[in-house]
Amino acid sequence: MTRVTFIQADGRSETFAAKAGDTLLDVALDNGVDGIKGQCGGGCSCCTCHCWIRTPWFEHLIVPHQDELDLLEFAWGRAENSRLACQVPLTDALDGMEIEVPEQQS
Ligand code: FES
Ligand 1 test: best mutation among 22, 26, 49, 88, most atoms within 8 Å of CB? Predict the structure, then answer.
């Protein structure tokens, strides 16, 4: 079981329990997290699941593939710790993970 906390731009936060193997997008959509739309259904082609992963969890994620990096070029507010939620599978090692949701999505 992995606990994941989504933090909105206004400071609101919600924590959910998730299974290893789910993606961050799965958790966000299953729980109706504001600001994570996932319009392409996790196909790495829309950028509406962009989020920022806080340290130290960001450093423990799988390395993004080139398609994700290319798409992130179009993300509003792209930063060093940007990821697409649909491309981030959860593991038990990520328990307690904190994710910031951008105020806008492209
Ligand atoms: S859901 Fe479309 S890129 Fe992640």
Answer: 49
**CA nearest neighbour of 48 among 28, 19, 62, 20:** 28
User: Does residue 52 or residue 93 have the better pLDDT?
Assistant: 52
Q: What confidence tens digit (pLDDT) does each residue in 12-29 have?
A: 999 999 999 999 999 999
Q: What is the mean pLDDT of residues 42-50?
A: 96
Q: Of the residues 25, 74, 106, which should be mutated to test ligand 1's pocket, given the most ligand atoms within 8 Å of the CB?
A: 25
> What fold is seen in the domain 2-100?
Ubiquitin-like (UB roll) (3.10.20)
> What confidence score (pLDDT) does residue 106 get?
60
Surface-to-core class of residue 91, CB atoms within 10 Å of its CB (0-12 exposed, 13-18 middle, 19+ buried): middle
Distance 46 CA to ligand 1 centre (A): 5
Atom of ligand 1 nearest to the CA of 38: 1
Question: Cα separation of 34 and 102, whole Å?
Answer: 10
* pTM of the entire predicted model: 0.95
